[in-house]
């Protein structure tokens, strides 16, 4: 029983670590888009490398920061 619990616990920890890494990566991508918008890049150019959803998140974040 202890090994099963230990495996379950380790799996949960690994999942949380992976989720944290993904959230950090998304935050960096959103910040990069915010910088591009601030520098005057067009939406069309930004969308060649980033998704529409990421672009909208960056716009939303910029409105909150104002």
Question: Your description of this structure?
Answer:
With 66 residues, the protein is mostly helical. Helices cover 83% and strands 0% of the residues. It has a domain at 25-66. Helix 1 (2-38) packs across helix 3. The mean pLDDT is 92. It is built from three helices and no strands.
Q: Keywords for this structure?
A:
66 residues; mainly alpha
What's the quick description here?
This protein has 66 residues and is mainly α. It has helices at residues 2-38, 43-46, 52-65.
Main pleated-sheet profile: none
Distance between the termini: 54 Å
* Count of DSSP H/I helices: 3
Radius of gyration: 18 Å
SSE topology sketch:
Layout: H1 2-38, H2 43-46, H3 52-65
């Amino acid at each position: 029983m202890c090994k099963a619990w230990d495996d379950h616990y380790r799996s949960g920890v690994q999942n949380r670590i992976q989720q944290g890494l993904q959230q950090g990566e998304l935050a960096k991508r959103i910040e990069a888009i915010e910088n591009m918008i601030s520098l005057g890049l067009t939406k069309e150019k930004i969308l060649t490398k980033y998704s529409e959803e990421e672009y909208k998140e960056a716009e939303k974040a910029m409105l909150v920061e104002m």
